[in-house]
Amino acid sequence: MPHSLSPNSPPEGERDEEAAQARPQRSIRSFVLRAGRMGSGQIKALEALGPKFLLPYRVEPLDLDAAFGRSAPKILEIGFGMGDSTAKIAAAHPEIDYLGIEVHTPGVGALLKRIGEQNLTNLRLIQHDAVEVLQHMIPDASLDGCHIFFPDPWHKKRHHKRRLIQPGFVALLVKKLKPGAYLHLATDWQDYAEQMLAVLSAEPDLRNSAEGFAPRPEYRPLTKFEQRGLKLGHGVWDLVFRRR
């Protein structure tokens, strides 16, 4: 039996509009939290190494030198995935400190496992949304560089608004770079590469280090997926810009 409405109830369409306005508006996320399987080694690494290498998210500036226990160049990586490239870069450059941000727990566990296996002391991790970390934890003009390798391309056109590399995000990120510091992006989706190039080129506080796309810097290792794609003739595009 259909329920009755009180005489003062608004028409159904108006009720729907009022309900929509009453709901809190969620910001667009550049990621989707997926439930991934955790291996026993990843779980053990989270338990044993998390307290030392996994920094808690806080709404206050992070003292980067204190977090690493030394004064050294600081490089931020956003979205390190399972951490294979991150660990390789950190192992090859022990004189540099690397702060990695990732939202997915299996990836955090996997990189902590590599930290333990390789005895890497120059890595710290934060498991949280990168935008909020940049807004609240990373001091302005504190970074010597930033890596964003193969972010989710959100390849369907209606999802392009979810792509991480947008003017507002880049403007926020640039504020965290020291003058002369670099921003290195890489993608294997050509239309995303072209969007990245357009967005970075339009940011007045950045200058391109190359004429268009850059050669892959030696410090960025080739992933197995990337090597397989290159053999099949797929492209990979690197962009290296510097803060003015």
Automatic annotation (TrEMBL):
Q: Report which reactions are catalysed by this protein.
A: guanosine(46) in tRNA + S-adenosyl-L-methionine = N(7)-methylguanosine(46) in tRNA + S-adenosyl-L-homocysteine
User: Repeat among the record's keywords?
Assistant: no
Q: What InterPro entries does the annotation carry?
A: SAM-dependent_MTases_sf, tRNA_(Gua-N-7)_MeTrfase_Trmb, tRNA_methyltr_TrmB_bact
Where does this protein hold S-adenosyl-L-methionine? 77, 102, 129, 152
Give the Enzyme Commission number. 2.1.1.33
Classification via SUPFAM superfamilies: S-adenosyl-L-methionine-dependent methyltransferases
Pathway(s) of this molecule: tRNA modification; N(7)-methylguanine-tRNA biosynthesis
| Enzymatic class | transferase
The UniProt keyword set, sorted, is: Methyltransferase, S-adenosyl-L-methionine, Transferase, tRNA processing
Superkingdom of this protein's organism: Bacteria
Q: Which GO terms describe its molecular function?
A: tRNA (guanine(46)-N7)-methyltransferase activity
Positions of region (Disordered): 1-26
Annotated residues that bind substrate are located at 156, 188, 223-226
Is S-adenosyl-L-methionine set as a keyword in this record? yes
List the GO terms this entry assigns under cellular component, sorted alphabetically. tRNA methyltransferase complex
Query: Tell me, what does this protein do in biology?
Result: Catalyzes the formation of N(7)-methylguanine at position 46 (m7G46) in tRNA.
The UniProt entry's sequence similarity note says:
Belongs to the class I-like SAM-binding methyltransferase superfamily. TrmB family.
PANTHER family named in the record = 3-DEOXY-D-MANNO-OCTULOSONIC-ACID TRANSFERASE/TRNA GUANINE-N 7 - -METHYLTRANSFERASE, PENTACOTRIPEPTIDE-REPEAT REGION OF PRORP DOMAIN-CONTAINING PROTEIN
Protein name (record): tRNA (guanine-N(7)-)-methyltransferase
The organism of origin for this protein: Sulfuritortus calidifontis
